[in-house]
Design a protein that fits this description.
Thiol Ester Dehydrase, Chain A; 7-stranded mixed beta sheet; alpha+beta; single chain
Length: 232
């Protein structure tokens, strides 16, 4: 019996005098004319849609609450051995912004705590760029989410001004910059009672912060403060 041989509509034989790959080129010509089944085409469209960068579509979320900013000059005492601001200092910047934010909303720490304390339960920080001696930055905070148990705050530190040639020394010149990201963070604030046990956020705290947002939008509230050397 003669053995079975695979058949093909495309010839793989190399024409006389032709290059060794001529037969393969003939086969490739026929393969290019093949079309995918309808199901495969739909899967391909789905994968292309899923690969679109987040934020390009109508479902991207942009927080509506405005930032509250505090301007902060960098001090020599805040630098580490590499002559940049030590990582631990950014927690102080962010806490100062939260405290001033509460005050701007008409809530000092004692009033907002209602006899207990407002406490930081979680802080997640991503470092994007360093700050150096003589830099001027701003620390910001805005309310991302409020629940009966916690306040979720979105925070940022941005570089505003950089001194050239000698840091804060006399004779150094400064350059005002477009705000550039230094740190971004998420802070979770909870309320504790007199025995430091977790409890519900006191009534009116979220409302006061929302009211501050509305006043800023209407031009009736301050959205920025300056934290100078004397006020540290």
């Amino acid at each position: 019996m003669r053995p079975l041989r695979p058949t093909s509509h495309a010839s793989t034989r190399t024409p006389a005098g032709g290059p060794p790959h001529a037969g393969l080129a003939t086969r490739s010509h026929h393969l290019r004319r093949l079309t995918l089944p309808p199901t495969t085409q739909k899967v391909g469209l789905f994968l292309r849609a899923a690969a679109a960068p987040p934020g390009d579509g109508p479902t991207s979320h942009q927080p509506s609450s405005p930032f509250f900013w505090v301007t902060i000059p960098v001090r020599e005492s805040e630098l580490d051995g590499y002559r940049v601001v030590n990582n631990s200092v950014y927690g102080v910047y962010l806490e100062h912004a939260r405290s001033e934010w509460l005050a701007a909303a008409g809530l000092d720490a004692a009033t907002a705590a209602g006899g207990g304390a407002l406490a930081l339960s979680h802080l997640s920080i991503r470092f994007a760029a360093p700050l150096r001696s003589g830099d001027v930055c701003r620390a910001g905070v805005r309310l991302a989410k409020a629940t009966p148990a916690r306040l979720i705050c979105e925070q940022r530190v941005e570089l505003m001004e950089r001194r050239n040639g000698g840091g804060a020394a006399a004779g150094a010149t400064s350059t005002t910059l477009a705000a550039s990201l230094v740190v971004e963070a998420t802070a979770t604030v909870v309320s504790l009672d007199e025995a430091y046990r977790p409890r519900r956020i006191p009534a009116g705290v979220a409302d006061a912060l929302a009211g501050w947002d509305a006043r800023v939008r209407e031009g009736r509230g301050a959205a920025a403060l300056s934290w100078d050397s004397e006020g540290a």
